[in-house]
Amino acid sequence: ISNQCSPLPCHKDGYKDCIDGQAKYTCVCKPGWQGEKCEEDINECEDLNGGCSQRCSNLPGSYRCLCEDGYFMHSNKRDCGGRNLHTFVHNCLYHDRYNLYRITEEGFFFFFLHPYLGECCCNIDECTENICAQLCVNSPGSYSCYCDGKKGFKLSQDMKNCE
Question: Is it the case that residue 123 has pLDDT exceeding 50?
Fold first, then answer.
């Protein structure tokens, strides 16, 4: 009897292993995938918001917790905390006796808050600019593009388009 796993019957993105049997095969799925051929992405966000304190974004075979504007992600990658405004302003502005200098990093912009508080260095949500071909996930000062692996797409070398 020939090898039932050749050619591979399992979904290329979702399977971890293919076990050959007598006139049958078994696809062993990676975490985040299910189905006879490991072809179905599990939406972890449907179950208690994926354990995220604010926003949950489903990704092919995985998920990611996100924070609303004005909050930061704690090291556990699930819980969000509020920004300390004075620390945030201090980190974004530099001044000497005569001038206030704006120090910008890519992915941030300045926003006038109050005459006594000065300005805020705020995150730009690049995802609102449709910068990614399929799925975009915003993060402080940056973003990441993802493709629907369930439909056979993968991220191209430009890290924005899908092929």
Answer: yes
